[in-house]
Amino acid sequence: MLAYVIRRVFMSIPILFGSTILVFLIVKFSGDPLEGLKLRNPPPPPQTILNEERRLRLDQPLWEQYWLWLKNLVLHGDFGPSVHSNMNIGNELGDRLLVTLRLVLVSVLIALIFAVITGVVSAVKQYSVTDYSFTFLGFLFLAMPSFWFAILLKSAGIAYNQATGTQTFFTIGDKSPFLVDDSAWGNIKDIAGHMVLPTIALGLISYAAWSRFQRAAMLEVLNSDYVRLARAKGLRSRQVLVRHALRTALIPLTTVTALDIAALLGGAVITERVFQWHGLGEFLLTSIAGRDAYAMMGWLLVSAIIVIIFNLIADLMYSVLDPRIRYE
Amino acid sequence: MSEIRASSVTPGTPQPTSPTGAAEREFTVKERSQFQQAVRRFLRHRLAVASLVVFILIVLLAFVGPLLWKYTYTDITPDNSQPPSLAHPFGTDSLGHDGFAQVLRGLQQSVKVALCIALVASTLGVVWGGISGYYKGLADSVLMRFADLVLTIPAIALAAALGSTGGGTWWMIALILGGLSAPLVARAVRGVVLSLREQEFVEAARALGASDTRIILRHLVPNAFAVVIVYATLLVASGILAETALSYIGFGVHSPDTSLGLLISQAQSAVQTRPWLFYFPGLFIILIALTVNFIGDGLRDALDPRQTRQRR
Amino acid sequence: MTAEINIQSGRKAGDGAAVLEVENLTVEFPTEDGVVQAVRGVSYRLAPGEAMGIVGESGSGKSVTSMAIMGLLPKTARISGSVRFRGEELLGRSENEYAAVRGKKIAMIFQDPLTSLNPVYTVGRQIAEAILAHNDVSKKAAMDRAVELLATVGIPFPEQRANNYPHEMSGGMRQRVVIAIAMANDPDVIIADEPTTALDVTVQAQVLEALEAARAATGAALVLITHDLGVIAGHADRICVMYAGKLVEKGTVDQVFYEPRMPYTLGLLGSLPRLDEGGRERLTPIVGSPPSLMNLPPGCPFTPRCPLAQPVCEEREPDLYATDAPAHLSACHFHEKLVGVSAAQLFRPTSVDTEGVTPRDLEVQQ
């Protein structure tokens, strides 16, 4: 098992490598990061521009720029210079990673729990009113643009706050700038309060997709020969449902969840934008707007590593859930 | 259980086409009847048919509507911030733009982008996955690793990075998003081709001396068609969501042109004061994505009856 | 000859001590295209310890009949008639009331051992689960019993094998595990639905042996469903022949094998290679294919394939008539004409693909 994990980690290196080259090239061809500086009025002294070019290694050939970035990253953990001279890309990524991961993980968890419940109920009560309602809701959520729904949630939260004259929902930021109750408990309450609406907004689409998937998986298992044999043995319906049907129908969901992580990180970009969180998403958008090549590559590296880790976890889960799969 | 299934299948239920090279005429006859059966099954799917009608009406509205409506999306009327009325069914914004004209234009751009995404992604995906599945070996490894790579990176990040170069023209956005969706289609097509190429009728064709091109065009492509058409349909839905999201974060369609996503983005601060600016474009996005998903569902049932039985 | 003893046990059934009585069982499936009449009025009685075979082509309703008896059909199925276990009606019971009967009183073995076992649990656990479902014993005791059962069905090294997952076993082994599950609670009836069809010929004998061992250990009556007449001949006392959802001939093995009184049975026997005839007889297939069970026309459903067909066959469906032999029934208007007729006399030997052919086609050819 350990050997398998190590091999998988090594196998993912080319993907990481390839994706950084891809993004590096895209950013390099997307424009000049010093455009803003050069167009400034009155124009800055030529020496300033030269200094900036040297600091951002723009005076070097393209392959040298990439090589320097890679070498410094591997040897010194240095993510390279940012367009914003006072920003350390590595530190900034670390701070924001915690914010975004919090959002993504909690959304995944909530979406999974609800998806499994509704999927199972829908499958067991196939063609009932409940099933049709869940199905319709699923289709509706899948068709809803996530940012539109997020804005809707946010304005509903604001409207509720105004109507009740309370601060029930937090609609801006990932935490309060300053707290009256600055204890650990106070901080947890504050962070959790800020998470309510964004996690719902982010988790909704995954929930819709996964509940559809879980319903299909469950239906397939319910029609399987071994569930029939379990019933023929004389097991109670609840035992058949939980021990035989649900247990096996959960296996494919692990793969689907892992595959959707990249999309969820993308979704987090939008959710963070709506709720004005200072997470990885905001970092990405400002980096792109500023043509901040190394910042983008740093972002990419972090998100690719998250995706790869999730896939690895899913594979390991799979081998735990399904005895037919054994990794040597 | 097997017996129930066997007996509920009527003798006319089409099996996957297994044309042999020898009986060319029979093959075409069989195909047409299959097509007719698919149409029949689709028509029985009432929700899908209704969705198709609604979707066609929306497309007509997007392309014919602007020609008939009294305002264009750039016109500035003397009415500012008007709620919906007879003169302005979707209200006006703070500058006096007619909401209906703006939504029509946004609809047109978004639908155009979504349809192109589906076209680009499925064309590219068929070639990509077809080559990969048919030739296997090195070509397959390289192409599939590249697909993995593209899929590891959140699409919206790549699209935003690429979109910031593209200058916000609708066809650039369609190309970018289409290209980024192609690996999904490629994977599916590869899977179909891999399983098909091992089947007897392909071996038979090969034994009869059919060329690679002939096998791909006459045997593999028609059989992969069902999968591709369903994917293409669903890509229209995910395409419109991707385009509007991209425009929302500012890397899609730019002002002065507009799209449904951009309209929502511009209206987000006015949800409470001028809600009509926010709701109408959103409802159209939902309507398009919803109807397209239902159409895709109906198509899947119509084209692949075996899958239906499993799914339902 | 074991047949004589078996006839006696068959008589015992007539005395009212039947362990399982199926009466006029009808199963219909509503579908989009119409109602499928999968089972159309099947009746039989099973005496304690008796072995009865049901033969028929796939789609003739054999499996649906037994699934209806077990209460395992989907909720959409419309079931009517009566199924009584030791005089107690089973149809109409709630799912959990039915669960008390399943496995405990009536056990079932399914066709495909590769898919019958849950891939994520060890076989020992799956057997123990059957025991725990009906007995208040410890898990340890149930596992010990599971190992014993594995030994009974002839699995070597049962202690180790109990900890295997299904995918670590061959098809024949897995089917023996399924048999062990079936006998776990000492049932009175075991229904085996094509237990050897999915297996290699070499393994079939071992599995049938395991089935016999299970019968010997439990004393259960057996309903053996198969399309393999050879299996029936060796393991059943009585035979029911099923066609298009109905029983068309009933009798002892000897009666049905040597004096068939229904053209369909004759056809089945004629399509079976026989070693005892010196290999000189040619095989005589039944032309055509079984009818769709949707919108069946009136009359005998075998008419289109029957060489004896007369206008009356298209008008009226025959009941099960008593023949000259006791307890030998046949659903043919002309069963009397079949006395002493061989398959080769009725059906023509042919070597063409018979799927789309009707009897008339053959006449034109010759």
TrEMBL record, chain A:
InterPro entries: BPD_transp_1_N (IPR045621), MetI-like (IPR000515), MetI-like_sf (IPR035906). CDD domains: TM_PBP2. The chain crosses the membrane at residues 9-27, 103-124, 136-160, 191-210, 245-270, 293-318. It is a multi-pass membrane protein. Keywords: Cell membrane, Membrane, Transmembrane, Transmembrane helix, Transport. Belongs to the binding-protein-dependent transport system permease family. This is Peptide ABC transporter permease.
TrEMBL record, chain B:
CDD domains: TM_PBP2 (cd06261). The lineage of its organism: Bacteria, Bacillati, Actinomycetota, Actinomycetes, Micromonosporales. GO terms for cellular component: plasma membrane. Pfam families: BPD_transp_1, OppC_N. Residues 1-26 are annotated as: Disordered. This is Oligopeptide transport system permease protein OppC. It comes from the Bacteria. It comes from Planosporangium flavigriseum. It is a multi-pass membrane protein. Belongs to the binding-protein-dependent transport system permease family. OppBC subfamily. The chain crosses the membrane at residues 47-69, 111-131, 143-163, 169-189, 224-251, 276-296. The keyword Cell inner membrane applies. Residues 107-296 form the ABC transmembrane type-1 domain. It is found in: Cell inner membrane; Cell membrane. GO terms for biological process: peptide transport; protein transport; transmembrane transport. Keywords: Cell inner membrane, Cell membrane, Membrane, Peptide transport, Protein transport, Transmembrane, Transmembrane helix, Transport.
From TrEMBL, chain C:
It is found in: Cell membrane. Residues 20-269 form the ABC transporter domain. GO terms for cellular component: plasma membrane. GO terms for molecular function: ATP binding; ATP hydrolysis activity. It is a peripheral membrane protein. Belongs to the ABC transporter superfamily. This is ABC transporter domain-containing protein. It comes from Planosporangium flavigriseum. The lineage of its organism: Bacteria, Bacillati, Actinomycetota, Actinomycetes, Micromonosporales.
